[in-house]
Amino acid sequence: MAAELVNSSRPPFLRPPFPRPPFLVRPPGVYAPQRDTWLLMAALDREGIGPGAAVLDIGTGSGALAIRAAQLGGKVTAVDITRRAVATARLNATLHLCRIAVHRGDLASAIRAHTFDLVLCNPPYVPAPAADVPRRGAARSWDAGTDGRAVVDRVCEGAPTMLRRGGVLLMVHSGLCDPGATLRHLDRVGLDATVSNRVHIPFGPVLRSREDWLRERELLEGEEKTEELVVIRAERT
């Protein structure tokens, strides 16, 4: 199948003054930037990173967030576990004339010797009936164990070693995987964490397909048909 061109029109909850998201090529099997991506991108825009700031994008996918960080002046490193995503992020960076170091690795394993001023992460976070995180296939981009926290907790645990003094982690995830637990975990590892933004969006295809299971797990209440997305901001003081 040929690569598709991702529609970069501004999502309904991103109004001016947010800039237009970057134009992207996305082949099959690479996570398509969507509302969680744009919400995290808006948080990145608000952060006001300085020229030359060291930025890490964990799970870069198509490279959307890495490209925006580079456009804002950051010195960007991007990491993804799949070869196809690494190749896609490199291609999109080239198309945008952005210099981004893209590595294949699990979370930040490829760059353990470095620390950063800003770490961006849009991890898999959807609760799934299977306890194990998928090792292949499209679901690898969103399924994260029965509580949705298989990757989120690993990011929280590793954040202090990735951040410089005064560095910031920006991570987006669903309200279904307990933002309060994320804040508590980040507090335990010594970071000052808050929810910097939240929106409610209609269920997408994945959540619609497992509504009954989510209700059985009491992760959904009543006839709820929207999902909360939150951006967590955590600073190493």
Explain what you see.
The structure is a single chain. The protein has 237 residues and is α/β, with parallel strands linked by helices. The chain has a single domain, classed as Rossmann fold, CATH 3.40.50. It contains seven helices and nine strands. The protein has a seven-stranded mixed sheet with strand order 5-4-3-6-7-9-8. Strands 1-2 form a two-stranded antiparallel ribbon. β4 (75-80), α3 (83-95) and β5 form a beta-alpha-beta unit. It starts with a strand and ends with a strand. Residues 4-19 have low confidence and may be disordered.
Structural features:
9 strands; seven-stranded mixed beta sheet; 237 residues; globular; Rossmann fold
Secondary structure layout plus pairing:
Blueprint: E1 4-6, E2 24-26, H1 35-47, E3 54-58, H2 64-71, E4 75-80, H3 83-95, E5 100-104, E6 116-121, H4 152-162, E7 163-174, H5 179-188, E8 192-202, H6 205-209, H7 211-216, E9 226-235
Parallel strand pairs: 3-4, 3-6, 4-5, 6-7
Antiparallel strand pairs: 1-2, 7-9, 8-9
Helix pairs in contact: 1-2
Q: Helical content, roughly?
A: 25-40%
> How is the main sheet built?
7 strands, mixed
CATH homologous superfamily (4th level) name:
Vaccinia Virus protein VP39
Return the average pLDDT rounded to an integer: 87
How far apart are the termini? 47 Å
Quaternary structure annotation: single chain
How many DSSP H or I helices? 7
- DSSP E strands, number: 9
The CATH class is identified as: Alpha Beta
By CATH, the architecture is named 3-Layer(aba) Sandwich
**What is the CATH topology classification name?**
Rossmann fold
How many domains make up the coordinates? 1
- Radius of gyration over all CA atoms, rounded: 17 Å
Overall outline = globular
Give the percentage of residues in beta strands: 25-35%
- Strand numbers in spatial order across the main sheet: 5-4-3-6-7-9-8
